[in-house]
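User: structure tokens for this one?
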Amino acid sequence: MTDEPFSVPNRPMAPLREPRPGKPWWTLTKGPSRLSCELFDNGVNGAGYRLLVNGAVFVSRRFGRLDLAVVGADDIRCQLEHDGWIGMYSGLCHTHHGDQHA
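Assistant:
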């Protein structure tokens, strides 16, 4: 066993990895802001969605399978539409979830 420390103080950090672009899934707007969703599939390493605000990555979430990522992304879209965000096909989530409106 060596006397080397497990972590080296002041060690330079590795450069951040640029995320690969995903498949555009949907885009919503609210005033001057634009929020887009991209899906990504990394095969055995899982899949997920990435939300971009005005083109900059805001948050991403990983799932075990692509179909679960699609459901997660669609649920986020429904929440955002409920909060006033508008998309090209706004209102689809009500039909998707079976909500009844009179």
